[in-house]
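Consider the tokenized backbone below.
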């Protein structure tokens, strides 16, 4: 699994992850605040191929965060973003 990007990186609610996967896999997203505390955790199935996954960030308060993505227990990517 490969995460190409997250758009928008400055969001008021929803962002989209652009993902390429070779097979059916499970993506776990942990959103951390600047103190390193988990603000949100999401687990999603990812189908094989190119796709765009909608990530609902409406329930986060405004601030700076880091999205950490895992394929099972394997770290995939870290993406900083701002929630307005």
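A designed sequence for it:
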């Amino acid at each position: 699994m490969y995460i190409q990007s997250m758009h928008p990186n400055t969001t008021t609610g929803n962002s989209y992850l652009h993902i390429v996967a070779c097979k059916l896999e499970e993506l776990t997203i942990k959103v951390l605040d600047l103190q390193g505390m988990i603000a949100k955790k999401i687990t999603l199935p990812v189908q094989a191929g190119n796709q765009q996954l909608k990530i609902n960030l409406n329930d986060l308060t405004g601030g700076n965060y880091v999205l950490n993505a895992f394929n099972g227990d394997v770290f995939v990517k870290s993406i900083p973003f701002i929630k307005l």
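Residues 10 and 82 are 5 Å apart (CA to CA).
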